[in-house]
């Protein structure tokens, strides 16, 4: 229970620091990755939260990586396509929800 409260406080602090979740972005948005934190229940993703975190990190979603949202799917805007440093990656929005980013000012 205390972990859930701490996670909610952490998410609120990141949001007020001008950071947001990657899942909320639209094509053309760009910035830098600040944190990867899988904090959802396992039934949301179909995998354990630690496994999801590991997979995202292996894909290159690491602190300091630069990104640009290139495209979003036609139905439900899912998945999203990103340029992540020098790679192109497609990611489901539910997985992108666990990536915190700092946007560049436009």
- The oligomerization state is single chain
Tally of alpha and pi helices: 4
Query: Segments where pLDDT lies below 50 for 5+ residues?
Result: none
Q: Kindly state the percentage of residues in helix.
A: 25-40%
- Tell me the major beta sheet: 6 strands, antiparallel
The end-to-end span amounts to 39 Å
Give the mean pLDDT.
80
**Which word captures the global form?**
globular
Gyration radius (Cα, Å) is 13 Å
Characteristic key phrases:
alpha+beta, 32% helix, single chain, 106 residues
What does this structure look like?
By secondary structure, the chain is α+β, with helices and mostly antiparallel strands. The chain has four helices and six strands. The longest helix is centred in the N-terminal third of the chain and has 15 residues. The N and C termini lie far apart (39 Å). 18% of the residues are buried. The model has no long low-confidence stretch (mean pLDDT 80).
């Amino acid at each position: 229970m205390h972990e859930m409260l701490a996670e909610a406080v952490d998410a609120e602090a990141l949001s007020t620091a001008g950071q947001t979740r990657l899942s909320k972005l639209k094509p053309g948005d760009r910035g830098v990755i600040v944190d990867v934190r899988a904090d959802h229940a396992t039934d949301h993703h179909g995998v354990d939260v630690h496994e999801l975190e590991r997979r995202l990190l292996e894909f290159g979603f690491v602190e300091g990586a630069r990104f640009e949202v290139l495209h979003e799917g036609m139905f439900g805007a899912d998945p999203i396509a990103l340029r992540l440093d020098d790679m192109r990656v497609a990611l489901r929005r539910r997985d992108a929800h666990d990536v915190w980013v700092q946007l560049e000012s436009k």
